[in-house]
Design a protein that fits this description.
- With 226 residues, the protein is an alpha+beta fold.
- It has one domain: Double-stranded beta-helix, CATH 3.60.160.10.
- 15% of the residues lie in helices and 50% in strands.
- It is built from 4 helices and 14 strands.
- Strands 1, 2, 3, 4, 5, 7 and 10 form a 7-stranded antiparallel beta sheet that branches. Strands 6, 8, 9, 11, 12, 13 and 14 form a 7-stranded antiparallel beta sheet that branches.
- A hairpin with a 2-residue loop joins β1 and β2.
- The radius of gyration is 19 Å and the shape is globular.
- The chain starts with a strand and ends in a 7-residue tail after the last helix.
Amino acid sequence: MARFEVLHEEGVRSVHITLADEAIRAEAGALCTLEGEVRIEAPLPGPRAYLRAVLSDEAVFRPRYFGTGAVTLESSLGGFHLLELAAGEEWILDKGSYWASEESVELGVHREPSWTSFWAGQGFVDYRTRVRGPGKVVLASSGPVQEVVLEKDRYWAQGPYVIARTPGLDYTLQRPTRSFLRSFTTRERLIRSYQGTGRLLVSSTPYWRKLVAERRLLDAAPGDVA
């Protein structure tokens, strides 16, 4: 099996993958360096897969790296979480969460309910990446990741903090209070709800360097004079 390592240097993190006559897939544009006899190919998607990728704003191509050697992916001020899937185990990934996976992991798509997608600001058509084991998957996150296990329970998140969930959970957007007026006064108009039995991967606290960089980008609004 391919060996995945998350490296931490100079305040940034990267994923280093060692291959021994093996293959992996990664997000398009994620490559940093190659070592050894490792080749790259980018299989062309079918028309349906291409359309889904365009509608979901996910990558159309996910290159395949195969051979013997090492692959290092681009570094990030955020973090990476290694998820090892058992045979038949499935997860639905939030947009931008997929980073890399072993070839044995099946990549598919999941369509969110139209009204949930609309109120979440994603339009009426919103596809997410679905992964199915066995094998390892690397997820990109803004900070540390914790797993939340639900047993016929509910979890609320004010924002896209849940980077992955198991299919058994019902995902909707709801008002956190019983009335519209109370939701308006609390400034919590719609909140993401995950209900049922299953597991969540949550990243709610970004690494401080990433937070500082994002705030600087916000401060440098278009039209500002340098």
